[in-house]
């Protein structure tokens, strides 16, 4: 893939992820999220400030802004290759006239970077002076788009997130648990699907980095949980 086009894909994914839906919805409801709850411009804080239905709407939109760029790249990447390049049976890209070969793992790596760019856009939004949310919903959308290897693991991680939320009432704890489980689920998925070691390594590297990043972003929540000062989410029925 030509570098200028590749940079456009990364930039587009970053800007899509950077759209601050929580702030936009909050302002439409006459609410400045910086003055409510945790001050975090995310779906959970919006739900506390504006109500459950608005939090759910924001969550869906945040998932979508991570999902759509990743799906778009999956559909378009073959049409963006330099002239003369050929796609093999396992996704390797090569030129019939030169020894240049790009492995399927390299194509997966490019795809993965599009997903990472969307999450980074959400966390470091230029529309919010490079501040943002914690990346859970957008990360879920981005990983759901990495089909089929990470789609099922992302869904299982979401199920775990919901279960921990309902059991404990702590969204931060649930987010950290789901993030930590994602690389494990991804390894199992890659083995079941028979992906190459290189492809599995790229996918696990992505989910491991995203998982560590999400846990780090929720470290303050985990600290407050240990101290007994973290508020529980009302929608879980535990507040």
What does it look like?
The chain starts with a helix and ends in a 12-residue tail after the last helix. The chain has about 240 residues and is mainly alpha-helical. The chain has helices spanning about 5-20, 20-30, 45-50, 50-75, 105-125, 135-145, 150-170, 170-195, 195-215, 220-225, and strands at about 85, 95, 100. The radius of gyration is 19 Å and the shape is globular. It has ten helices and three strands. Helix 4 packs parallel to helix 6 and helix 6 (about 135-145) packs antiparallel against helix 7.
In order across it, which strands form the biggest sheet?
1-2-3
Query: How many helical stretches?
Result: 10
The low-pLDDT segments are none
Give the SSE order as H and E letters: HHHHEEEHHHHHH
Helix residue percentage:
55-70%
Structural class: mainly alpha
Number of strands: 3
The biggest sheet amounts to: 3 strands, antiparallel
**In one word, what is the shape?**
globular
Question: Terminal Cα separation, in Å?
Answer: 51 Å
- Whole-number mean pLDDT: 88
The radius of gyration computed from the alpha-carbon positions, rounded to a whole number of angstroms, is 19 Å
User: Which band does the percent of strand residues land in?
Assistant: under 5%
Keywords:
single chain; 239 residues; mainly alpha; 3-stranded antiparallel beta sheet; 3 strands; 66% helix
